[in-house]
Amino acid sequence: MEKIYIGDVSFIPKIRSLELNGIEVKLRNKESEVLALLCECYPDPVSRDKIENSIWTDSYVTDNTLTQTISNLRNALNDKKHELIITIPKKGYCLGFEPKFLLCNDDNHSSLSEIKSVTNIENENAQVYLSGRFSFNYIVMLLVLFFISFLFLFEYFFNKYQIDIVNLNPHDLPVIINLDLKKDKVFLDKYRKKPSILLKKNSDGSYNICKRVKDEFLCTRE
Q1: Please, are residues 172 and 149 in contact by the beta-carbon 8 Å criterion?
Q2: What is the biggest distance separating any 2 CA atoms in the chain, rounded to whole angstroms?
Q3: How far apart are CA 20 and CA 39, in angstroms?
Q4: Which long-range contacts (CB under 8 A, 24 or more apart) does 7-16 make?
Q5: What is the pLDDT of residue 197?
Q6: Each residue of 85-102: pLDDT tens digit?
Q7: How many Å apart are CA 22 and CA 3, to the nearest integer?
Q8: CATH number for the 2-107 domain, one of 1.10.357.140, 3.40.30.10, 1.10.10.60, 1.10.10.10?
C-alpha cells in the first residue's frame, strides 16, 4: 500500500485516509483522487481542465463542483492559509510541499510519528557523535597546551639556576642559591668560606653544603 507524506500530513490514497496530528480523516472519493493527482504532478501545477478530465471522465462537472472539492480538501488538511494546496492564477492548483512516497505493508503501516521518531534518533546520534568528537579534540588541545607549558617552565627554571662553571671566578665561591643574606646570616657566616663551593637552601628549610675534598665534589645536607 502506498502512503504519501505532505508536510505533517500522511495520505493513503487506497483507503482515502488522511492523518494529521494523530487524527485520522476520511476523504470523499473525488477529494482523494484530486489530492493523489496533485501529488503525482508535483511540482507542476495542474489545470482545472486536467483535473476535470482526469477525475470526472464520464460525467459533467461545473466550475463550482471543482471549487467545492478543493475547499473540502483544504478543510480536511486544516489548510486555512492555503499553504498545502496553492491556487496559481490561470494555471490551476499545486502542492506547497514536496510529497514523499512510501510503500508499506497493509498489516503494518508506518505512521508519521514513527518516521519522525527515526529522524529524531538519527539527529540525537549525530549530536552524540559531534559531542564526542568535540570532547576528544578538547582533551587533545589541553594536553598540547600542558606539554608546551611544561617545556617553557623547564627551560626557564633550568636557565635560571644554571651555573656557568667554566667562566666562574674563584673569588665568587661559594655559589649561593636561594639564600638570604639577612635571614640566613648565621649559616652563611659558618660556611661562606673555603672549602665550600656551593651553598643552597632547600624548600623545606634545610641546606646543602658542597665542598671539594681532594679530587671529589661532596655534598652534605644540614
Answers
A1: no
A2: 128
A3: 17
A4: 7/84, 7/96, 7/97, 8/112, 9/77, 9/84, 9/112, 10/111, 10/112, 11/35, 11/36, 11/39, 12/109
A5: 79
A6: 999 999 999 999 999 998
A7: 15
A8: 1.10.10.10
pLDDT-derived band of residue 140, with 50, 70 and 90 as boundaries?
confident
If you average pLDDT over every residue of the chain, what do you get? 82
Cβ neighbours of residue 185 closer than 8 Å, sequence gap 6 or more: none
- Alpha carbon separation from 105 to 24, 99, 110, 149, 206 (Å, rounded): 18, 19, 9, 64, 86
Give 44-82 pLDDT, tens digit per residue: 999 999 999 999 987 788 889 999 999 999 999 999 999
Give the model's pLDDT for residue 108: 47
Q: What ranges do the domains of the chain cover?
A: 2-107, 170-221
